[in-house]
Amino acid sequence: MPDLTRNAGVGNAAASPTRSLAIDNIGSLITSDPELGRGPLGIVEHACVVIVDGVVEHVGPAGAQADDRIDAAGACVLPGFVDSHTHLVFAGDRAEEFTARMAGEPYDGGGIRVTTEATRSTSTAALDQLVRQRLAEAHRAGTTTIEIKSGYGLNITDEVRSVQIARAHTTESTFLGAHLLPAEFEGRADDYIHLVCNEMLAATAPHSKWVDAFCETGAFDVDQSRAVLDAGRAAGLGLRLHGNQLGHGPGVQLAVECGCASVDHCTYLTDDDIAALAGSDTVATFLPAADFSTRQPYADARRVIDAGATIALASNCNPGSSYTTSISFCIAIAVREMGLTIDEAVQAVTLGGAAALQRTDIGRLTPGATGHAVILDAPSHHHLAYRPGVPLIRQTIGPLATVGSPTHSTPARSGR
Ligand code: NIG
Q1: The domain containing residue 69 runs over which residues?
Q2: Which of 10, 199, 333, 351 is the most exposed place for a label (fewest CB within 10 A)?
Q3: End-to-end CA distance of the chain
């Protein structure tokens, strides 16, 4: 069967003739558009989605005609998950560090250096293969759009190849040279930031859409983080920031001041932080699997939503603080521990993730949007929280597309 679900205008768009695909006999369709259906998620019952050349052409009652048909058999269908925060380019794992944490050791981010050592000593081909495996895992778990950061190279050569690998697999590639001070710069953080803002940025920017920094005690302070964001903006990159993960701090205020698309973690928020987020376009991205794996408290997302800010949930897949690609897991924690309704959690991994990436073409199943969809082994999206730990993704339709390299090929669909 031809690839009916690729991203229009990206990758192999000229490879096959236009054909239409109907996802038919949908019991409960989440469109993300309240004008198309019930409630804030725009739910349509007994529905069909028609996708032409990777783009949603039509949403309506079951039974629409198309060249090809997938029978959802009464299941729930929702937009593919948008995972707006991952660190997939790494080698090795840190299971021992995790085990020690579960026995009471605190998390302080210092293990980033362990992963940097492993990553630097791994070949580019092997790193790329690891990223492909993680992407396949994420796709099986329902993710169709993903952001990928560098940040385990921490020198020019290894940061460049990290963003090159990221960019080969997603348009949402992020330069995170300011992840942690590498050992060889110990005691010379300002020198390292100078390198990041100049030669390293110049070498990585052509392969990056975004720049990011870890603004936290033990990583980089507010002035160093601001310097990275300013330099990234001057190089034409969009801005994102890690902030307020391990304690209260200036990250959220800095992100809002600089106009970041998103500030990520947000575990420790003051009333002023929440007010700043609510008065801005900066998305508060919560990473509940990191709080789970580091034994941090869970963020009070309820207060942030009630204040009127836009929120997202993301996996933060990385070998230290959050070694999971499962967005379903994040939904379950957010509902159980962070005060979100199930509808809000589903919105946060679809439209919320799209907002964090400043995209309007994903996170929805509406005419004109990309045809990225997930078919659940369940009649409603409530089961994503109601049945935690159960692999409910029957089929993922649409990319994680490979972009930028004709030699890479990620399957367009996966199912079990
Ligand atoms: O988002 N906080 C900084 N970076 C990652 C953790 C990286 C690591 O521990 O390897 C995060 O949690």
Answers
A1: 20-80+363-415
A2: 199
A3: 17
